[in-house]
Amino acid sequence: MRWEDYGQSANVEDRRGGGMGLPGGVGGLGVGGMIVLTLVGWALGIDPRILIGGAEMATRGGGSGYTQQAPRERGAPPSDEQGRFSSAILKSTEDVWGEVLPNQTGRPYTPTTMVLYTGGTRSGCGAAQSSMGPFYCPLDKKVYLDVGFFREMEQRFRAGGQFADAYVVAHEVGHHVQDVLGILPKVQARQREVDKVSANQLSVRVELMADCLAGVWAMNSNERYKDLTQSDVQQAMAAATAIGDDRLQKQSQGYAVPDSFTHGSSEQRVRWFMTGFKSGQVKACDTFRTARL
Predict the structure, then answer these.
(1) Which is more confidently placed, 173 or 61?
(2) Percent of the chain residues topping a pLDDT of 90
(3) Is the pTM of this model over 0.85?
(4) What φ, ψ does residue 104 adopt, rounded to 5°?
(5) Hey, CA dihedral for 167, 173, 175, 178, is it positive or negative?
(6) Measuring CA to CA, which of 7, 52, 124, 127 is 20 to 30 A from 291?
(7) DSSP string covering 42-111, please?
(8) pLDDT tens, position by position, 18-38
(9) Using the 8-state DSSP alphabet, how is residue 132 labeled?
(10) Could you tell me which residues come within 8 angstroms of residue 238 by beta carbon, excluding any fewer than 6 positions away?
C-alpha cells in the first residue's frame, strides 16, 4: 500500500512526549483496572465491551509509569513515521466514509478524531492505557491509539505489516461509523436488558460488523488509489486471525469458551472482513440480521 499518497488528517491529537504523571501502571490491565472500567461503563449506561472495542485484542505486559502526555497543536501532522502513517490511514477513512456513507445510507459522515498517546491518557470514557489496545470512545467520539500496539501485533501475534496496522485503525473507525449510524446506542441499551451471555453475543455482532466495515473501507480505498496487493490483504487476514477470541483464549488458557467471546472467532473475523472487502457495501455488514455469524 502507498499510504504516503493518502495525505494527512487534520483530526489527530498527538499527546505523545512528556507531561504530567497519573497514578497507575502501564502493565497488564489487572483486576483494579477492570473494575474501574466496568464501573465507569455501567455508571454511564454504556457496556465496557462496547466502550473499549479494541480492549480485548491484546493485553500488554511490563513497563511502568502511567503518563498523560501534553497534547501538541491539533491539526499539526505528526513528524515520526508511525504517527504520519496513522494520520494517513485516518485521512483515507475520512475520504472513503465521507463519500460512501451518504451515497449508500443517506447519512452524512462526521469524522472521528484520533488520539495518539504513549502509556496512558484521559478519554471521555475514563482512563486509557496501552494495555487496552486501540479503542473507540463513543462519549467523546474519538479513537485512542498507542502506536506501540503495531509493534505488539508484529512481535507477539506475528501479524505485522502496514496493511495489518491499517486494518486495526479502520476497525476502530468502523465503530465510529456504527455510532454515526445510531447502532451503538441501540446495542448498549439492549445489553443492559439481557444476561451476560446474550450481552457477549451482541458484542460479537458489533465487533464483526466493525471488521466488515474495515473491509468496506479497504475496498473503496483501493478503488481510489489502486495500491493494494494480495500480500496486503493477507496481512489483514493474518491480523484478524491472530486476534480472534478463540485464538487468544487458547494461547492464554489452553482452551476456548465460546459463550465468553466478545469479538468473534478467528474464522468469523476473517470472513466478515472479506465480506466487506469483496462487496464494498455497508448493507453487506449487517451482522444483526443474519443467523450465521
Answers:
(1) 173
(2) 70
(3) no
(4) -100, -25
(5) negative
(6) 52
(7) HHTT--HHHHTTTGGG--------EEEEPPPPTTSPPSSHHHHHHHHHHHHHHHHHHHHHHHHHS---PP
(8) 443 343 333 344 434 444 444
(9) G
(10) 158, 159, 161, 164
